[in-house]
Amino acid sequence: MQLELRGITKRFGSLVANDHIDLTVEPGEIHCLLGENGAGKSTLMNVLYGLYQADEGEILLDGQVQRFAGPGDAMEAGIGMVHQHFMLIPVFTVAENVMLGHESTGFAGKLDVAGARAKVREISDRFGFHVDPDALVGDLPVGVQQRVEIIKALSRDAKVLVFDEPTAVLTPQETDELMGIMRQLKESGTAIVFITHKLREVREVADRITVIRLGKVVGEAQPTATNAELASLMVGRSVELTVQKEPATPGAPAFVVQNLTVLDARGQKLVDDVSFDVKAGEILAIAGVQGNGQTELTEAILGLQPHVTGQIRLDGRDLRGLAVRKVLGAGVGFVPEDRKEDGLVAEFTIAENLMLDRTAGETPFVKSGNLQLRHLTEFAKEKVREFDIRTQSIETHAGRLSGGNQQKVVLARELSRKLRLFVAAQPTRGLDVGSIEFVHTRIVETRDAGIPVIVVSTELDEVVALADRIAVMYRGGIVGIVPGDTPRDVLGLMMAGEHPAGVGSAA
């Protein structure tokens, strides 16, 4: 099925999110929609999917003009969408999620769950997904949950499939698997719109590339274009794709973890006897495949894990057992890996979210127990400019921002505090190349100010670019701590639990 968008325009008040956009996607083609956060990519796809109504323009399928009053109409016409943040119900099984909204019934009006199971198995076998139709979605890894979203779309005979930032929450291995799935879908004749800002992924799978900037199509490119060319089209200027930093001049160990063990409610070890230190003025990157204890380690540092033994010391003060507010008050800045669940309050404004984590008596925002709105407004406007948060107003609710702009709000809040330690888990997840350049620069500046920095990332490119030393985690333990210039293939082996011969410790 051929998809054609003609002159699509979508306005939100004075903001023109899409400005007369034209786009054509052929059957059996992967057409990449590339652009910065807030460029209008997701808005355009929400118009296509019937979530928004265009102010101007037309949607055509195989040359026929379509009118979608909602997503149901779009699905009926053969359009499926895999959202960045999954639209699944955790307490339902895979089969129940797949049939939700399209329930069929059998004898005496009973739901045909068996038919849904068979459908899941058929699609799963066809594409090698290995998804159990009876598994609870909440128990599945993120990569498998995404496959469930794809099965949902294919079960409704989607001929046009939209992937909206599909790799933002995936590990490198899961990303590679998704690329293979997209190629299979292409070979089956599906027309694919792939929304992303990750240049490596674009060049790996795209047949054609359309670049959107500030709501307008600013050019088309071939996958043979260089990263620098694509980045320049996206941002409208040349972008430094490598991290510029001088060699670290670390001081004494400022943050020390000794024999740290974290248990779950059943007594199973999530973090197993981990010890490391971070010196003042250095970046320690923690690498590993998602799910090997990194999340629980950072949560233990913040005081979010209840069953912790060992020592966690900052500037000689033991933080273990302290309440989260006291840990933050000790000067710990924290960027959580899940910004929607742990980093923001979606119903709060941008300005209000920038105030979170502040101590009750902190000036100039609080005086005699009263919030100083003038200072908060000035501060919020300054941070919106400094971090290039794309929004109409500081009064916009954080939940209405794009994922990348939500991440910028979290970073702006944490990096504007007086820090003694900065812990950033997946700090550039969901960000575009221009924003990544900015965030990496700020992280290096934090290091150069003499602050110890911990960066937890599943992106090896990011780990290698930022780290002065690298600790690799596997099954809750640290396989080894190595220099920041350790080759990627060696790091890959360590992430699989091996410590290659000849690789020394950088402890």
TrEMBL record:
Domain of life of the organism encoding this protein: Bacteria
Annotated PANTHER family: CARBOHYDRATE TRANSPORT ATP-BINDING PROTEIN MG119-RELATED, GUANOSINE IMPORT ATP-BINDING PROTEIN NUPO
Molecular function GO labels: ATP binding
Annotated ranges, domain ABC transporter: 3-239, 255-500
Pfam families, sorted: ABC_tran
Keywords noted in UniProt: ATP-binding, Nucleotide-binding
Protein name (Swiss-Prot/TrEMBL): ABC transporter ATP-binding protein
Cross-referenced InterPro entries: AAA+_ATPase (IPR003593), ABC_carbohydrate_import_ATPase (IPR050107), ABC_transporter-like_ATP-bd (IPR003439), ABC_transporter-like_CS (IPR017871), P-loop_NTPase (IPR027417)
PROSITE patterns in the cross-refs: ABC_TRANSPORTER_1, ABC_TRANSPORTER_2
